[in-house]
């Protein structure tokens, strides 16, 4: 049996969602940065109050918007912008997500700093980046003042915002 790229990608999204599950709450206001077509935001949309997907590529976000519309997901918004300079007020979100993108960021520390800035105290911050690895993600979160709660061998890290 041949596994397609799409099937592999969908499986990694589901793995990330499973790792995120202990943090999910129906009252969460979620932010996904480097969201692409917001696969993660769309996967958790029915389990949170609201999800915002941010990416610099409008055309990819538009694909996600079309998919959200097709699936009747009315609580996901799509924003074009850089993760290093989020257009949100301090202490806005209760759950923050970034999957497999920090390693390609020009300044991963700035991205993590922004995630912490827009998180409410105690908010869950879930990062994954197999290229950077767990140790680097933990170091970035701790440098930003977050308290790392759990990790796994797949390169996923969950922390609580200060």
From TrEMBL:
Read off the InterPro entries from this record: Methyltransf_11 (IPR013216), SAM-dependent_MTases_sf (IPR029063)
A Pfam family annotated for this chain is: Methyltransf_11
Q: Where is the Methyltransferase type domain?
A: 32-125
The protein depicted here goes by the name Methyltransferase type 11 domain-containing protein
Q: Which organism is it from?
A: Actinocorallia longicatena
